[in-house]
Structures are given as C-alpha cells and as structure tokens.
Amino acid sequence: MALRRALLRSVEISPDRKRRARLLVIGNGRKIEIGLGVESEGGIFWLGWGARGRLNGIVETAAVEYFHSLSRAQPARSFNGAGLCPASRSFSTQAATTSSTPQPPPPPPPPEKTHFGGLKDEDRIFTNLYGLHDPFLKGAMKRGDWHRTKDLVLKGADWIVNEMKKSGLRGRGGAGFPSGLKWSFMPKVSDGRPSYLVVNADESEPGTCKDREIMRHDPHKLLEGCLIAGVGMRASAAYIYIRGEYVNERLNLEKARQEAYAAGLLGKNACGSGYDFDVHIHFGAGAYICGEETALLESLEGKQGKPRLKPPFPANAGLYGCPTTVTNVETVAVSPTILRRGPEWFASFGRKNNSGTKLFCISGHVNKPCTVEEEMSIPLKELLERHCGGVRGGWDNLLAVIPGGSSVPLLPKHICDDVLMDYDALKAVQSGLGTAAVIVMDKSTDVVDAIARLSYFYKHESCGQCTPCREGTPWLWMIMERLKVGNAKLEEIDMLQEVTKQIEGHTICALGDAAAWPVQGLIRHFRPELERRIRERAERELVAASA
C-alpha cells in the first residue's frame, strides 16, 4: 500500500519566521507514525516520532496535542540550514514521506544510588596522601600531575567554570558554597585592575589537618590547581597564605614552586599556553582569625588580621582593592583532576548536591586515627570502621562525635548510628560537615570539659572587633568552667543558651557562630548531664552544711 503524508500543523518557532515546525503524519491507512520536524531552507530537520495509531480524527487530535507539548518543552532549540543539533537527524521532505521506522525509546535513567563509600584506589585524587612516594615534580608527573595542563588552559575561562559547575564541587573549607558559581563572580572584562586568586592554607581549626597533607605530600597538585583556577577566574596571580606553624609544609611548597617555575609550568607563558601566571607564598603568624577570608586579605596586605564588613565582597574589592576569590586548598587541588576526568565522573560520587570525593581527618578515640579520601555521603559508622579500626572499645563505647571540626555541634551516638557524612545530611541533624574533621569521643570523655576547652579556644582567638564576640566568648567560657564542676544553678543553663543566641549571627565574621554552636550542641544533647552535675554539687554542699 502506498504511504500517505498529512501535514497537521505548521507553526513559526523562531522570531524571524524563517523556520517553521511541521507535525507530519505518515501511514498506509491502518498504521501511522507521527513526527515533529523543523522546516527551513535545507529541508526538514527531524526531532523524532510520536504516537502511533489509526489515521482518524482522534489520532490527529492527539498528534496536535503532542506537537504542543514538544513545542513547549523545546522552545530554545536552534537549527540552521547547514546541520543539526547533536540529538537530531536530518531528513529531506522526500525521506519524510517514505520512512516509517519508529525511533527507539530513550534509555531509562540510571537507578538512584543508595549506598556510598568504599572508594576505589583508581578513583582517588590524592594518590600520595601518606607520603609514600616522591612529593616533588618528578614523582608528581608520574602520578599524572601537569599532564596536558596546557590543553586545559587553552580551553578558556568559561569552559573551566562551566565544567566546575557541572561537577557539583562545593567549597571544602567549611561553608560548602558551590565552587563553580563562586568562581563565576569574578569580572569577565577587566576594568584595569588585576584579578587575584588567594588560597586559604591557614588551616587552624582544631582537629583539621587535611590541607597539611596536601601541601607536604602533594604540593604540585595544589600549584597546578592554582593555575587552572586562576585561568578560570581570569586572575594574573595566586597568593597562598599558609598557617605560620606549618614550617615543613611551607618549605615543601616553596621547593615545588621553584621546580614549577624552572620547568616553565608557572610564570611567563605558563605551560606554553601563552598565559602569564605567578604564584606567591606567604605565611601567617598563628592567628586563627586569619582563616576568615577578609581577615586573611587584611593580613596579606600587612595590616591587622581583622575581618572586613561586607559588602563590598572580595570578588569586587578584595586584595589591594582588586577583584579576588579566596578559596580552600583542597577545593583548588581537586580542580585539574575534575577537568581531566570530566565533571560527570566527579558528580557520580555522593548524593545529589553533595558530589565528589572528600578528605576526612579522623582523630580522637579511634584505634587508628588517619586522614583518608572517601566518597561523600559515606555513613559515619562505616567511615570509622573501614578506615580507623572502629571506636576504641567498640561502637557501643561511643559517646559523641564532632563531625566537622570544632566549630560544628556535636552528635550523640544514637544519631551517629545512621548519619551520612555530607552537607545536607548533617544539616538535617543540626550539625554540619565543616572541614570534615571528625573528632571521636568515647564514654571515658568528660564531654562538658571538652566543650569548655573549645570555648576557651574561641575566647582566646577572638579579634575583639565585635562586641558580642569580644564580650560573649569570655562569658561562655566562664560559665562552662563552672558547669564543668556543677557550680551553677539550673536556670543558668537557659541563660547560657541565651548568651549563645546573642552571639550567633551578630558578628562581622563567623567566629561568633563557631563559638556558639558547640555550646548549643552540648545543651541540646547533654542537658541531663549538666543538670546532674548541678544537683550533685548542691546535694554535697547541703550535706556539708548540715554536718
């Protein structure tokens, strides 16, 4: 039987009216095919087949509805007379009248991943994390660093930023802001001021030591990442601000920097790409507050390390008043591997919005404290048992865990049983991933004393610029010292909670929040322990007074 073709609808799909969408029905009187094509000077550019059925009014009505759904779903697809978009096929008008072979349905989406962890060695980014191999240029190149870096640079800033956005990488310094988006805030067109990349290597958070391992065992990964990130931000130079106590790490990084300059990988015409990029290394003097990005910039300029008011944000007025992005060591160091292996590879690890691999530094009461690279969203219990030999004395001996460095609230054992190690899961249980510094406390720990010690740390490290922090952190510490021995009244627990709320969110930088959150976590989960100490001391004093 001869094939018939019917034109059901022809509608303009471009403002200039040079292209029209055609809904075609092709059949032999019994079975039909319905397809959508775009008519232009080069013929019909076929989008695909639709419903199949008998050639009657019902089918035609369904076909028109199908056309409308497609035209709404694909308003921005572009075509020209010379070729097709990648997902389309080209047919002449004649071919459309004789072909009736339906397109196969698209493959179903892959099943959603439900188990995380057990990262394979071939998927690890930091392959010299434990210093078993040569950390310098020769060893780094054997491990794949600086491999075809020129090709990555030549792809340009927009490509680099878009790939980082696709990867889903979030800042590894604690805040978890999407890195690709942050890099895109830098100006696309220079107004005459240079742009800078500043790498925050002032790793001073108690319990955190991941960046230290990168700088002393994989320094070239950081330097290559500086070049890649700098190109993405259109920066002319990078400044690496290292914690003052990290002497060996600074020496290793300086040696690696000298090697990179000697090999033409940095400096003028970096990697032969035609892009000039310098890296400078600066070390601080041990002030925790200089880990805050604007305080770091102040210190880098030779001023007191005190946070700036925002706005203006560093992307508009940062180092020396120029556009600047401040980012973490780990965030920068993973970027070359992401670009080489593809953003889809990186995004395949972890849950949605919590992509990639992550360095976890685990300390405290575990059998084998370590820093390890693992998949995001790994269960906390699996992380400790797989890499640390479990909690000292067994899992049932666990009291609490601080999951992300000293500034996040602790979690008691019953939450640790099931919690996943990623941003969203920990936020849901009123804590945070932070720097992924896991501090484990078993039942031998005096948890009140532990939080009191952290309160002293934040009191000591406050710069004193903001009144709530300057006056509030000593109060937190003094009350915690009294609660440690029960020398307080029950109502003072609520007063302590109120003090934390007066500090939280009322300071220029996040140090006030960091001081308040550990105390809030203690009250939330261990209030009965605080009340027990107060009652027992009151009973002892009563007995002593009556004796």
From TrEMBL:
Its EC number(s): 7.1.1.2
UniProt-annotated stretches for the region Disordered: 90-118
Swiss-Prot/TrEMBL keywords: 4Fe-4S, Electron transport, Flavoprotein, FMN, Iron, Iron-sulfur, Membrane, Metal-binding, Mitochondrion, Mitochondrion inner membrane, NAD, Respiratory chain, Transit peptide, Translocase, Transport
Subcellular locations according to the entry: Mitochondrion inner membrane
Enzyme class: translocase
Entries under Gene3D superfamilies matching the protein: 3.10.20.600, NADH-ubiquinone oxidoreductase 51kDa subunit (3.40.50.11540), NADH-ubiquinone oxidoreductase 51kDa subunit, iron-sulphur binding domain (1.20.1440.230)
UniProt key word NAD: yes
Comp. bias regions, Pro residues: 102-111
InterPro entries in UniProt: ComplexI_51kDa_subunit, NADH-UbQ_OxRdtase_51kDa_CS, NADH-UbQ_OxRdtase_suF, Nuo51_FMN-bd, Nuo51_FMN-bd_sf, Nuop51_4Fe4S-bd, Nuop51_4Fe4S-bd_sf, SLBB_dom
GO process terms (BP): mitochondrial electron transport, NADH to ubiquinone
Cofactor names: FMN; [4Fe-4S] cluster
GO (cellular component) term, any one: mitochondrial inner membrane
Biased composition (Low complexity): 92-101
Catalytic activity from the UniProt record: a ubiquinone + NADH + 5 H(+)(in) = a ubiquinol + NAD(+) + 4 H(+)(out)
Gene Ontology molecular function, alphabetical: 4 iron, 4 sulfur cluster binding; FMN binding; metal ion binding; NAD binding; NADH dehydrogenase (ubiquinone) activity
Family to which this protein belongs: Belongs to the complex I 51 kDa subunit family.
Name of the protein in question: NADH dehydrogenase [ubiquinone] flavoprotein 1, mitochondrial
Taxon lineage: Eukaryota, Viridiplantae, Streptophyta, Embryophyta, Tracheophyta
